[in-house]
Amino acid sequence: MKLLRQIWSFIKVTLSSGCSLSSSEQVSIVIVNKGINPQSNFNVSYKLNGGAPVSEIVTTTISFGDTLNYTFNTTADLSVDGVYNFEFETQLNNDQVPSNNIFTKDEENFTSPAAALTVNDTICKGEPLTLQATSNQGLINWYSDAAGTIPLNGNIVITSTYYYYYLLCRSTRF
Question: How many Å apart are CA 64 and CA 134, to the nearest integer?
Fold first, then answer.
C-alpha cells in the first residue's frame, strides 16, 4: 500500500540541555514526509510541561521523502533551573498513519549559581589562600578571569594582583 498522505513526526529537536538557558529559547524540529504526495499547510505544535499547545501552520511544501527543518515562531521560556518536558505533534488532515505524529523529549536547564562573596575579610598580598567549592554536578575548575581562560593550578593560590577568583563547574552529563 502506498501512503498518499503521511507526515511523520520524526522530530529531531535542536534544543539541548545546557547552562543558563534564556526565557526565549528557539524551538526547532525536523519533519519528514513519508507519503508519496507533497504536503503543505498542516499544523505542528509543541507543549511545554503539559501546558497549552503552541500551534503553527507549516506553509512550506515538503516533497516525498524530504525533510523540513522547522523553527517555531514562538520561543520557549527555559530560564528556570530544572527539567522541561516537550511534546511535539504534526497534524495532517487524513494522515494515513497518525500513530507516529507525536514525539516527546526532555531538556534540562542547569542554572549557574550566584557568585559567592566574602565580606569583611582581608587577605594580605603574598599569603596563601585556599579556594574551596563543592558540587554534585561535575568537575570544578578555578580561574583568575571571568571568561575562564586563565586557569589556576589547583585550589591553593598565593594572593597577588588578582582580587577575584572564578570557578567553572562542568556537568558530567555532557
Answer: 53
Same domain for 16 and 91? yes
Residue 77 lies in a domain: yes
Q: Please indicate, yes or no, whether the overall pTM of this predicted structure exceeds 0.90.
A: no
DSSP class of residue 64? T
Q: How far apart are CA 133 and CA 164, in angstroms?
A: 15
Question: Per residue in 19-51, is it b (16+ CB within 10 Å) or e — as a string?
Answer: bebeeebebebebbbbbeeebeebebbbbbeee
CA–CA dist 34, 63 (Å, integer): 9
Does 81 reside within a domain?
Answer: yes
Q: Per residue in 65-94, pLDDT tens?
A: 888 989 999 999 988 888 899 999 988 888
